[in-house]
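Moderator note: this is an archived Q&A kept for reference. The question asked for a predicted structure of one protein chain; the sequence and the answer are reproduced below.
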Amino acid sequence: MKFSQILIPTTKETPNDASLPSHIYLIRAGFIQGYSSGLYNMLPLGKIVLDKVRAIVKEELDNAGAMEVSLGFVTPSSFWKDSGRIDKYGKELLKFEDRHGAEFVLSATNEESMVNLVKGSIKSYKNLPINLYQINLKFRDEIRPRFGLMRGREFLMKDAYSFHVDSDDMIREFNLMEATYSKIFTRLGLDFRIVEADSGAIGGSGSKEFMILADSGEDTIKVCSSCNYGANVEVETGEVCPKCGDALNETKGIEAGHIFQLGTQYSDALDAKFLDNNGKAQPFVMGTYGIGVSRLLAGIIEQNHDDKGCIWTKESAPFSVNIIISNIKKEEEVAEATKLYNELKAKGIDVLLDDRKDRFGAKIKDFELIGIPTAVIFGKKLSDGLVEVVERRTLEKSEVSVDNLLNEVLKRV
């Protein structure tokens, strides 16, 4: 992609309502655009990153045997009344009537919708277990939307729901989803912890949160440095690890994933049953598993930034390489930069060619603000056969021979 042909409205100004680094930099670097309280447009760079994160989530869920569906964003209020949650969620549910007076809500989560789907499709134990997921819009009318994508009103969420004949099989799937989530967060290059958590408005007998460690996190968690135990302070925790007996340390985290052991809470409420191997009707035993996909963009930047801008991790970056032409009027710089651009594209590398007529200093500032992992700068030393390569995370610079440039860049990506 050429910089001159893509909409990247970078700006020096900090948005008035932005306080967190991710909120500031995602707007300043042209990834998102706010248009109302808690509502954001995804601009081209933001959509590229969102699609990359979504693809990783989908790949790992598919590998784990879950199947993707897409449920309606608009849900009948009757679903929520039947489950008893319409009052529990309260004003966070955006309610409206259609022209015929029928009542609906914008989906905040989809336990009810998925139970109704399965209730109408699966009648026998022979068709169980099954895990269905979607990556779809959600809307929660937050009383105080803030922090950009961290706590917006409309967001992209991966929500999965599994159905089983008994609790043992549900717990097996719960453990599989825990392992699957760990793969997702690891691939995204995140430092995270899995913690015991309160099930809140979703309900169920037990749940675990996936916390991205960041000083700006809204949640306070306690983690053990000797084993993998962690817990949200909303859950009763002491000062000593209940697993190994070592001290617990307090830190901050951003909730980016949550998995729940639901049991029969929703299947009982919605009268969703299957016939077991004895021909007897039984309620589905359920688990539910959520990931805030758009929130992950904010979480990645909260954990990976400096005072100059974003620092995207390898698998989340909008592009792997940013090629910068120092002076667009220099034919040799343009020719060599374009050559590398075409060579990298031919090898399937996502690359951005900064071919703008802007000053060199402005191009460097945009590279630092946008946060693409590696920059290749074609400048004055090109006449000596040298090109500068810069790593965004460390801002470490190195001079590379033009003759060896392609191999050197491929090593880094």
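Archived answer notes: The longest strand covers residues 248-263.
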